[in-house]
Structure formats: structure tokens, C-alpha cells
Design goal:
Two copies of one chain form a homodimer. The first copy, chain A, is an alpha/beta fold. Chain A is 51% helix and 24% strand. Chain A contains 13 helices and nine strands. In chain A, strands 1, 2, 3, 4, 5, 6, 7, 8 and 9 form a nine-stranded mixed sheet that branches. In chain A, helix 1 packs across helix 5 and helix 2 crosses helix 3. The two termini of chain A are 47 Å apart. The mean pLDDT of chain A is 88. The interface between A and B is large, with 64 and 62 residues. Chain A binds a DNA duplex through helix 3.
Chain lengths: 297, 297
Amino acid sequence: MRIDWIEDLVALLDSGGVADAARLRNVTQPAFSRRIKTLEEVLGIELIDRSVKPSGPSTVLRDRDAELRKLAAEQRLLLSDMRQEQSSGLRQLVIASQHAITTSMGTQIINSVAEPSRTHIRLRSANRDECETLLIRRQAAISLTYRIKSEPASEPASFLIEAVIGEETLIPVCGSAHAADLIARFHDGALRIIGYPADVFLGAALNRHILPPIEAQCSVSVVTETGLSTAALQLSQSGLGVAWVPAALAQPDLARGDLTNLGDTLGCIEMDIVAQRWATTSNLATLDAWSRLVREM
Amino acid sequence: MRIDWIEDLVALLDSGGVADAARLRNVTQPAFSRRIKTLEEVLGIELIDRSVKPSGPSTVLRDRDAELRKLAAEQRLLLSDMRQEQSSGLRQLVIASQHAITTSMGTQIINSVAEPSRTHIRLRSANRDECETLLIRRQAAISLTYRIKSEPASEPASFLIEAVIGEETLIPVCGSAHAADLIARFHDGALRIIGYPADVFLGAALNRHILPPIEAQCSVSVVTETGLSTAALQLSQSGLGVAWVPAALAQPDLARGDLTNLGDTLGCIEMDIVAQRWATTSNLATLDAWSRLVREM
DNA sequence: AAGTTATTATGCAGAGTATGCATAAAGAGG
DNA sequence: CCTCTTTATGCATACTCTGCATAATAACTT
């Protein structure tokens, strides 16, 4: 039984001609040629443009390039997930988690969300947009993202359920050895910070809520930009500048005294940790994990 | 060539047993039974639970119920779209459009976005969340939604491109015959309005931007709630209360004098009309439509 | 324009698959 | 333990797919 006819179409899109595609699919050219022909009959769709010689994909096929690839990818993923669930005997559960949440709370989440002996949690770290996409595309069962408390929460999508499962504060920190120096310079009207790119959530948060008031009273220079809060933490610890990082992430270093919290001077951002899932799901593993998340965290 | 093996799985999920599922798929029970068996071998996944007698779907299969159905649906849709494109010779293009935008600007969009002789536009009307979902799931090539000007635009998702293609104002209106009465009551401290459900965009907009200041100075009673701005328009015209509707929608009635604009008294909401598409697309019809949208509207 | 090369299609035989029918095997329920 | 319902298997038949060899066709060369 052949279940991978979509792959034939993708091969066609990937290659410059039938013979080429046949090679990709590991069959002889005549066999592949006929396969496409019968597919054309079965689907009722012209798949290749025979008017030219290295005959490329037809217009119809090319127009659906993205959709076909997506479908093929989803199919592969779904099957491999099912196989894994089958062989391991463990339920699979994908949780999409914003990078900063993964780093600061990853193990806590994995431990609290399910019994390891019965469910295998795959924590998929991504930026906030991607988390939402993963959820909507059903490539993740649950998404965990930050939401800034002072921002008006846009009404939740009607097909999603959400719950606040915790709180977090973005605090400005720097290496304790350099704290005095940085503060002094700040009062002189100059502040060096470790920034986040404007197109990631933390960057946008910083730009909207923290920097405007600071920039009103001193000149801010962004020493480095990194998308990762762990990297920002490292850099700030070495004295490069102030970085805003999740409190949970800075906690160990703060307790040890290596790091200094400048929140009183520079301001913090209060955030909720929001969990989301599809309103309609009957997957037991998901529902179980959800109730644990809402209850325990 | 069999391309519909996913449908076998769905049939299995839909039915109470193999024989039942066989009937759904229009084959004899023995044939279907063997089909499932070979599928189990090919996929390497146990599909049915044989320990009980009307043997139901296995745990693994049931856990993936939603995903399988989604995949099956997507596949059906994609193929039928391709067939249609093939037979009509017209490129298909799905544009997701927020209900209120569809009603107020539908024809304008369809006319300006593509040449009818070469592209077939399907305007898919949905609420705002659904528009976004359709876009992200690639079930729509372009989405058109409102965005309230005074709200901080959350940073756009990095994988999407967006453009403001127009403006719109949500204005409070009522039937001209009842305007004086309503205004008088308003000054007496009572206002009757046609509301939108809080979980749709217009409802949220109303609740956040319009009603708070009004409620501070008078008591607001929501006479009726409807999710459709056209319905709201009708109801307000009949004197039931004030409704906030897109200016373009009210325009004809306002010009005719049947409707009165109460914007000066009750306040309006300024909105942008935002078009979005995936950043990565090579679909010519989409790119063409996009440039027309951005240029002409 | 004719010949050469690259690419795709087709004839054919053999191997492999799928199906329906009849019937056996296996749970479920009494 | 027997009956009923449901699923699996044996078998013959029809169909499908593949590789090989080779024909047909488009593109390129001289």
C-alpha cells in the first residue's frame, strides 16, 4: 500500500523534471512517470506541464506549493508521533513555550504537568508568535506565553481557552561588581543596556514600557542585542550593561550576590504567565496536563 | 491508486467497529479488515484494539482524532481547490475578511484585488480570530481585519507581512426619527444601545473604548446583542437604540437622511484596515492581489 | 535542416496487491 | 455451554505497479 503520494508531488516541486524527481523518490523514471500519470487521473488534476521538455510542475501544482509541503510535513510528523507513542507506550504531549519561560521554568513545567511514567512531554521552545502558531496549527497542545499585566488583554480567541498559571517579573540586573559604576553613570545621564531585538516579545516590552521613561531623563545606548534572555543575563553579569530578565532566571545569581537587582531605580515589568489550549479537544493527555497546570502552578 | 487511506482512519474513528467502518467506506468487511491490517504494517502503528469485540480504534488512534480529521479535511479541501482551479482555468484566492469589513467593503475588495477573468476571489467572512487562524493555517492567503488606532499595535508576527490598506470609523447611529428622543433620554442619564457580544472584536472595542466614558455619566442598557453589524444597523434604524457601525456601512442611509450620526455626542472609534499575509509565499496570485490591495485601496 | 542529446512515454512480462465470496475463528451475552 | 455477532483467513480473480528495453519527442548543436 502506498501512502506517500503527496511526497511524489513534493518531489516534483523540488526537482527539475520527472527523471530528477524519480531519482528523489528512488524509482525508475518510467515507473515514476506512470505514477504521476495515474495520480493525474485519480486526482483529476494536471500535475506536470508537458509542453516543455524538462517538464516542470504545472501551474496548478506550483500555486499550491506551500500547502502541499505543509500537508506533507504534517502527515510525516503526525505519523512519526503516533509511532513514537505506540513504541514507547507513553502519551506524547507537545507544549509550546516562550523561550524565556522555557529557560526559567522549563524543568518545573515538565515535572508538574504530567506523570513522567505515563506521558512524555516535549517542551518546544519558540518565540511568542511561533508559540501561538504552533497552537493554532495544532502542532502543540498547550502554549505558554508571557502577557504584560499593564497591557489591555486583547479579547481571547473564542476557539481557545486560556488561564493565568503564574506571574513573572522582568527585572533589570547587572553584575554586582559593576552595579555602583552603572548607577553612577546613570545619574550622570548615560545608561548602557543589553537589548532584545524589537521583533521579539521581550524587545517590544522593553521598548514600550521601560525605555521611554528612562530615555526621557538619560541617554540609553544598546551595547548588544540578543534574542535570548540567558545570553542577556550572562552579558549583564560581565558588566557590559543592564539587562531585563525574568526574575526566576536571575534568582540564583541574585541570591548568591553575583547579580544586583536594579528594579527600584530602573523599573520592572509585571507579567502573567498565560496557558492556552484549543477549546475543543478530547485528548486525555492534554486535558490532564491542563488541569495540572491550572491547579499546581 | 489509493490516495485516501486517511479516510479509512477517520471512518474507523467515526464508527463502532470494523464492519461498520467498512460500510462507511463502501467495501466488504473482509476487504476493509485487511486494508487496516496492511495499513498497520505500513504505518507501524496499531490502529484497532482487538481485545474487545466490536473492536474500536486504538488509544494511539483516538489520541490523534483531531489531528487526523484536520489532515483529512485539509487534504480534501486542497484537492478540490486544485480541481476547481484546473477546470475553471482561474486562479483561486481565498481572502479572510472580518465580517464587518465584508459587509461594508466586500464588493470593493473583490473588484480591486484581482482581474475577475484571471483570478477567482473567495471572500471568506469570519470573526477576527478566525481570520487570523485561517491565515496562519494557510487556509486563506490574505486576511483583512480592523485594528483600533488608539491601541498599541502589538508587534507583528515575524512570519507575517502586514500593511494598512485603509481606514474606517465606527460611528454611533440611530434612526433619524428617533434621534431626538434618544438624545433627550441620554441627557436624562439613560442610553439604550445595540451591543455586540463581548467575545467578538466590535464588542471588545465598544467595551474598552466607548462605553466606559459614557457609563461614567449615564446608565447604559443593552437592548439587544448581535454579532453582525448589518443587523445592528437595522435594529438601530428601527429606533431600538444606538448602534456603533462602520461608517461605510451606514453611509447610504446617512446620505438618505434615514440615519443620524451621533458621533459628536457619543464618540467614535478610529480604525485601520490591516491586510496580512505570510512573508514567505511564491504564489503569484497572492502576490499580485497583495500589490493591488496595497496600491489601490 | 539534419543530427545529436536529453528527457519523457509506452509495450511487455512478471511480481505484487486488493477484492469478493465463502467460511473459519474469536469475543460477547445469555 | 451454546448462540449470536463480529472479525479474520483461504482462495481464485482481477487489477496495479515495477523494471527493462525501446520508442517518441523536445531542445540543442553544427
